[in-house]
Specification:
heterodimer; A: 219 residues; alpha/beta; 4-stranded antiparallel sheet; 5 helices; globular
Chain lengths: 219, 223
C-alpha cells in the first residue's frame, strides 16, 4: 500500500520537559497505527500536530494525497503538510458533542462541517448502530458519559466513501465492554476496506495488522 | 457551501434560544443602566436630552461587552471549535456565521429596545430613527471586533477582564462616531458624515475580522 503520511524529526517540549525528540515514522494506507505511551507522554499533542491543530511540535509532517484502489499512484499528486478537510474524521479528546443539542443535531452538524449530505435515515441508522436508538431527540446533557462518547463515535458509522482516514484520540474512553468490542470491529473492518487509522489508546487493540508506536518512557 | 452556512446559522440560533438566560442578561443590564441615569443624575429633561446619546451608546457598548466572552466559550470547551477549524469549508465563513448570529441575538434586540429607553432620557423624537440606525451599525461592528478579542481570550479560564482591556481601544472610534451621529441629529447639525464613518468602520471590520478571528483561534486552539 502507498505511503500516506511521513513524519520526520518531530520534537516536542512542554514546560521545559522534552516529551519526544527525533521521532520519525511513516504510515501506509490501510494501516492501523496505535500510538502508545503513559499519561502525559504527548500522545494527544502528537495527534493534534498530525491533524494540523498544534504548533508546539517542531518537525516535518507530510501528507500524501490518498490513492484510491482504481488509480495508480502518480508522481504529481499534491503533497502537503495539512489534510484535506473532506477525507478524515478527527475524534478529539474533547468529543465535540454540544450538550445543549440532541445527538441527531450533533451528528448532522459534524456532517455539515465536512460539507457532506446524507439522508436523515442514514443519520438515524448510525445513531441506532452505536446504541442510541430512542435517544436521538434527547438533549446530550442528559446522556451518560459513555452515551455522549457514542454520539461522537456515530460519525464513524456513516457511509462516507470520501473518508479514508480516521484520527482517534482515546476512542474507548467511557465505553462499556460491548461498545469497545463493537468499535474494535468497526476499526478492523475500516482498515480491511483500505482505510487508515491513527489512534491513541491505553487499550490494547487485538488486530494482526496493528502497528505500535511508543512515545515517552517504556510502559 | 450554502448548506453549511445555513446549518451553522440554524445551529447558532437554536443554541442561543436554548441558552437564552445568558443572552437576556446583557439586555437586562442595558435597560437597568439606562433607567438609572434619570434617577441618579438629574430629572431636568433638557440636560437629560443633551446626555441621552452618550448614555445610550455607552450602555450599549458595555452590555455587548458582557456577552462577548460567550461567543466561543462553549464551543471551545466541548471541542466543536477545533472541528470548525478543521472543516471542509473556510473557517472564516463559519466564524462570520457565529458573529452574525451573536449580533442577531444581542445587537439587534438592543437596537429594537433603544426607542423605548430614549423616551426615558427625553431624546428628541426626530433623533430616534438615526439612533437606531447608528446602533444597528455600531452593534454589528462591536460583535465583529469583539470576536477577535473573544477568540484571543477563549483559552484562558478567566479572560473576561483581559478581553475588555484588549478590545476597548478599538471600540472607542465606534463609540465616538455613534454618539456624534445622534448628537448631531438632535442638535440639527449635519449627521450624515458621522454615520458614513461609522458605516465605513463597520464595513472594514466586516472584511477583516473573520480572518483575524480565525488567526487568533488557530493560536488559541493550537497551544
Amino acid at each position: 500500500m502507498p505511503e500516506l503520511l511521513k513524519a520526520t524529526d518531530l520534537f516536542c517540549e512542554r514546560d521545559e520537559r522534552i516529551l519526544f525528540s527525533n521521532l520519525s515514522f511513516a504510515v501506509d494506507q490501510g494501516e492501523i497505527l496505535h500510538i502508545q505511551g503513559g499519561n502525559g507522554a504527548g500522545k494527544t499533542t502528537l495527534l493534534r500536530r498530525l491533524v494540523g491543530l498544534s504548533w508546539v511540535v517542531d518537525g516535518k509532517v507530510t501528507w500524501h494525497a490518498p490513492v484510491s484502489d482504481g488509480d495508480s499512484p502518480d508522481g504529481d499528486s499534491p503533497d502537503g503538510d495539512s489534510l484535506d478537510g473532506n477525507s478524515f474524521w478527527y475524534l478529539a479528546h474533547r468529543p465535540a458533542v454540544t450538550l445543549m443539542q440532541t445527538p441527531l443535531e450533533n451528528l448532522a452538524f459534524a456532517l455539515a462541517l465536512h460539507n457532506q449530505v446524507l439522508s436523515p435515515e442514514a443519520l438515524w441508522q448510525a445513531l441506532a448502530t452505536v446504541g442510541l436508538r430512542g435517544y436521538e431527540d434527547v438533549p446530550a446533557h442528559s446522556l451518560s458519559a459513555g452515551q455522549q462518547r457514542r454520539v461522537s463515535l456515530a460519525r464513524l458509522y456513516l457511509e462516507l466513501p470520501a473518508v479514508r482516514l480516521w484520527l482517534l484520540d482515546e476512542p474507548f474512553t467511557a465505553l462499556d465492554v460491548n461498545g469497545v468490542a463493537q468499535l474494535e470491529q468497526r476499526i478492523e473492518r475500516f482498515a480491511e476496506q483500505g482505510g487508515t487509522v491513527i489512534m491513541t489508546s491505553h487499550h490494547g487493540l487485538r488486530h494482526t495488522a496493528v502497528r505500535h508506536l511508543l512515545i515517552g518512557a517504556p510502559l | 457551501m450554502i448548506a453549511v452556512l445555513r446549518t451553522t446559522l440554524a445551529r447558532e440560533m437554536t443554541l442561543a434560544f436554548r441558552r437564552r438566560a445568558d443572552l437576556l442578561n446583557p439586555l437586562f443590564f442595558f435597560v437597568v443602566v439606562v433607567s438609572l441615569f434619570p434617577i441618579g443624575v438629574t430629572l431636568d429633561l433638557t440636560k437629560l436630552a443633551l446626555m441621552a446619546p452618550g448614555i445610550l451608546w455607552v450602555s450599549a457598548l458595555l452590555s455587548s461587552l458582557l456577552s462577548l466572552d460567550l461567543m466561543f466559550r462553549n464551543d471551545f470547551d466541548d471541542g466543536t471549535l477545533e472541528q470548525m477549524l478543521l472543516a471542509a469549508v473556510p473557517p472564516q465563513l463559519l466564524v462570520l456565521c457565529k458573529i452574525i448570529s451573536h449580533w442577531l441575538v444581542t445587537g439587534l434586540p438592543l437596537t429594537l429596545l433603544s426607542p423605548v429607553l430614549s423616551l426615558m432620557l427625553a431624546l428628541p423624537a426626530k433623533a430616534v430613527p438615526v439612533l437606531m440606525l447608528s446602533l444597528l451599525l455600531g452593534t454589528l461592528s462591536l460583535s465583529l471586533i469583539g470576536s477577535v478579542g473573544a477568540a484571543l481570550t477563549v483559552g484562558l479560564r478567566k479572560g473576561g477582564l483581559l478581553l475588555t482591556i484588549l478590545i476597548m481601544p478599538i471600540l472607542v472610534p465606534v463609540l465616538i462616531f455613534g454618539t456624534s451621529t445622534v448628537q448631531a441629529m438632535a442638535t440639527d447639525q449635519p449627521w450624515q458624515g458621522y454615520l458614513a464613518l461609522l458605516g465605513a468602520f463597520t464595513a472594514g471590520a466586516f472584511a477583516l475580522t473573520p480572518w483575524l478571528t480565525v488567526a487568533a483561534l488557530n493560536v488559541t486552539v493550537g497551544d
